[in-house]
Amino acid sequence: MTLIKPGNKAKFLIPLIKQSHAGQYVCLCHKPPNWAEKSDTLELVVTGYFSTKPTLSALTSLLVTSGENMILQCASRERYDNFILTKENEKFSMPQDSQHINSTGKFQALFHISPVKVIHRGTIRCYGYKNSTYVWSKPSDSLEIHITVLQAGLYQAKFIKSNVTFIDGGIYKCYGSEDTLPYLSSYPSYPVELVVSGSFEDPDSSSQEPIPTSAILPKPAIRAEPGSVVAEGSQVTIICEGTSDAQGYYLYHYRNLVSLRRMTLMKPGNKAKFLIPLIKQSHAGQYVCLCHKPSSWPEKSDTLELVVTGAFSKPRLSAQPSPVLAPGGNVTLQCVSKQQYDRFILIKEGPQKLSWIMDSQYNQSSGQFEALFSVGFLTPNQLWTFRCYSNYRNKPQVWSESSEPLELSFSGIYYNKPSLSVLPSPVVTSGGNMTLKCVSQEEYDKFILTKEGQKFLSSMNSQYIHSIRQYQAFFSIDHVTPDHTGTFRCYGYYKSTPRLWSVPSDPLEIHISGESAPSLLPHQGHILGPGKTLTLQFCSGVNYERFDL
Fold first, then answer.
1. CA–CA gap between residue 81 and residue 129 (Å, rounded)
2. Residue 3: predicted pLDDT
3. Are 8 and 134 part of one and the same domain?
4. N or C terminus of the chain: which is more exposed, having fewer CB within 10 Å?
5. What pLDDT, on the 0 to 100 scale, is given for residue 63?
6. What's 522-537 look like in SS3?
7. How many domains does the structure of the chain reveal?
């Protein structure tokens, strides 16, 4: 380290902080021949490595009296392992594990501060992190925590706000505090409502509509049809739903906040729409809508995230160990791509949509990038169909093409087990044909075949055979290859519940022989007397690992 005058200090400059600099540091000094003890540990945290910043909010008021309780919520759409709070750039809390909330599709942690003390006042931010406890995301926006006292402010101050627009309308309160204790505040003043009159400029017209307002319109609802995840090149309609007396609807795209887009009124008059006839990547992002009438100023809607898919090549989705599982079982869904994406997104389709986001990891053995999603305790009372996408952090609403859909099925629902056999034999010469027969005494509508736990062929309708009083289906495979070697099973199911299967048949091992067939010779000749021992010998010019008789 470089000595600083006076000589009892030294410094070490890191001119450009990187992720690799994060971690624990100690320093020590020495005077020959003696060394001093090492210093306490300094933890150096590098922030901003993950571009998705969490949001920090208070579930209780930020203005609390000493001794009360307060709950802070840190949330993010990106899957962080932990969240942590800071105050004035110092750690303020112990890290909390991230929890996924199905209703919001976000990951969050709750920080309970009980009881609140004077030392809790100040500027609070939250961060998310994953594997490394010293490499954090960008910070959330700050929250100011104030501790109230009983004495009201006695002095006067003027707050001047220039260039007022309709967005500045609302309810205002003021507080008093002292310079030496800026975070100790008085009780709030009585509220004052600021009403913005004047004009609401229509971006598509030179006319202006007066809004001498005192009322607040209810928050409108925003949605996208057919959905908020749309393929590039398709069309989407953004719909804003307000009150029946609203006279104008406008749409913000957060990429371009300098202008409003007028939306087209729909019948009945409490809705409006904005059509995007040809979706491009530039349309991806966050949208809000607002509505107004001459006697009210507008309230903006919640944020709509519009995702555009199809920008990159699609990943591949598979289930490990199998897409066929028992009720209440666990399965790991693997999303894989040869292309280096930053993240993978797993979507469960259907009325109750769920989503998961994970960082991409490089698998050295396969030479591909992947993410493993653990999906636990699945029940057969709903359909489980998944797709996965991939994207880059700098464009979170621009996704790849969708993987092929993966449907999970449940076995063991029906207890009548079918039987599986093969014609002409379980050993077939490469290039030949074979037929697998699935039979059951239960009147299943269809039978399906799996190989090594994966669906192998399309399902077949069952046929009733009077002579044997059973139901059966045939699966014909022409021109077999060594790839057909493996363990086969069959299941029965009903058309009304195509994802609920019977218990599996016993496994059937299929072996495919090559062109270099071995020879079979009896040691004692072809004719033996009763009670004799028979020895058969296989011979081959190929060094096989084993022989099957």
1. 6
2. 83
3. yes
4. C
5. 64
6. ECCCCCCCCCCCCCEE
7. 4
Q: Cα-atom radius of gyration of the chain, to the nearest Å?
A: 34
> Which pLDDT belongs to residue 61?
66
Q: Which amino acid is at 186?
A: S
Supply the pLDDT for residue 202. 43
Q: How far apart are CA 125 and CA 142, in angstroms?
A: 5
| 139 and 8 both lie in a single domain | yes
Residues of the chain with pLDDT under 70: 61-65, 147-155, 163, 165-170, 180-184, 193, 195-217, 255-260, 268-269, 294-298, 376, 514-517, 524, 541
73 shares its domain with 186: yes
- Say if 33 falls within a structural domain: yes
Give the closest residue to 398 by CA, choosing from 333, 334, 305: 305
Residues 89 and 190 in one domain: yes
The residues pairing with 110 across neighbouring beta strands, listed in sequence order, are 73
Please give the DSSP secondary-structure letter assigned to residue 78: S
Phi, psi torsion values for 352, nearest 5 degrees: -100, 80
Range of the domain at 426: 414-513
Does residue 546 lie in a domain region?
no
In-domain check, residue 9: yes
- Would you state the pLDDT for residue 210? 40
In a domain, 526, yes or no: no
101 contacts: CB under 8 Å, gap ≥ 6: 75, 107, 108
Residue with tokens 């809000």: 288
Q: Are residues 37 and 184 in the same domain?
A: yes
Q: Residue 178's CB: how many other CB atoms inside 10 A?
A: 12
Same domain, 178 and 248: no
Residue 466: how many other CB atoms lie within 10 Å: 6
Based on the fold, state whether residues 42 and 150 are members of the same structural domain: yes
Per-residue pLDDT, 209: 42
Length reported for the chain: 549
Residues 393, 455, single domain; the answer is no
pTM (two decimals): 0.54
Nearest partner of 244 among 281, 269, 212, judged by Cα: 269
In terms of C-beta density within 10 A (0-12 exposed, 13-18 middle, 19 or more buried), how is residue 292 classed? buried
- Strands (DSSP E) contained in 92-191 are 96-97, 99-101, 106-113, 122-129, 135-137, 143-148, 170-172, 177-178, 181-185
Check: CB of residue 26 under 8 Å from CB of residue 42: yes
